[in-house]
Design goal:
Strand order of the largest sheet: 4-3-2-6-7
Number of helices: 1
Radius of gyration: 15 Å
Shape: globular
Strand content: 35-45%
Largest sheet: 5 strands, mixed
Distance between the termini: 40 Å
Order of helices and strands: EEEHEEEEEE
C-alpha cells in the first residue's frame, strides 16, 4: 500500500472570521495516541481532529486518510468518520492542502498548530472543545471530546482518553 502526505499545517472551515483574532502568536499542541490493537487484520484508522466553539463553525485541524489510493479512492470512506463528516467534512474540498495527511501507525502522535498563520484562526479567550474521531475498517469508531478554556493570556489545557480506537488525547494552548 502507498501513502503520501499532502500537508502538515491547518486550515479553517468557514474562514478565519469564525474565531476572533487575539494578539500574539499562539500555539495549539495536540497529542493523541492510537493504541496497538491485536487483531488478525489491522487497518490504520482514518482520524479527524477539529476544534469547536459554541456559535462558530467547526474548524478542521487535520484529517488522516488513505490519500494515496488510486482515483482518490480513500476519500469515499471519509463519511465513516461520521461526526467530523457532519460537522465540516462534507463541505471540505479534499485533498485539502495543509489538512489532509496519510493514516498513521499505532503510537503517540504530536501535532502543533500556530494560530493566526495561514488559514489557522487565532483563538480568543473562551471555552473550546477539541474533538478527535477515529474510524477503522474492520474495526470500531470512537470519538474523544476534550473541553478546555483559554484564559486572557491565551493559555489553556485539557485531556481525555478513549477506550478502544483512541487512547490518551491532550491539548495545550500557549503563547
Amino acid at each position: 500500500m502507498h501513502y503520501r502526505i499532502v500537508g502538515m499545517t491547518v486550515a479553517a472551515i468557514g474562514g478565519a472570521g469564525a474565531f476572533p483574532v487575539a494578539a500574539g502568536a499562539q500555539t495549539l499542541d495536540v497529542t493523541l495516541t492510537l493504541p496497538r490493537i491485536t487483531v488478525a487484520e489491522y487497518h490504520k484508522p482514518y482520524v479527524a481532529v477539529w476544534l469547536e466553539k459554541a456559535g462558530s463553525p467547526a474548524t478542521t485541524l487535520t484529517v488522516w486518510y488513505d490519500v494515496g489510493k488510486r482515483n482518490d479512492g480513500g476519500r469515499k470512506w471519509l463519511s465513516d468518520v461520521r461526526m467530523w463528516w457532519r460537522a465540516s467534512g462534507r463541505t471540505l474540498a479534499l485533498p485539502a492542502d495543509g489538512v489532509s495527511g496519510a493514516t498513521r501507525a499505532p503510537g503517540t502522535h504530536k501535532l502543533s498548530f500556530v494560530g493566526g498563520r495561514g488559514k489557522v484562526p487565532a483563538l480568543a479567550a473562551g471555552a473550546y472543545t477539541l474533538v478527535v474521531e477515529a474510524a477503522r475498517e474492520g474495526g470500531g469508531r470512537e470519538v474523544v471530546r476534550v473541553p478546555f478554556t483559554l484564559g486572557a493570556n491565551g493559555a489553556g489545557a485539557g485531556k481525555a482518553a478513549g477506550t478502544g480506537e483512541l487512547g490518551a488525547v491532550a491539548v495545550a494552548a500557549h503563547r
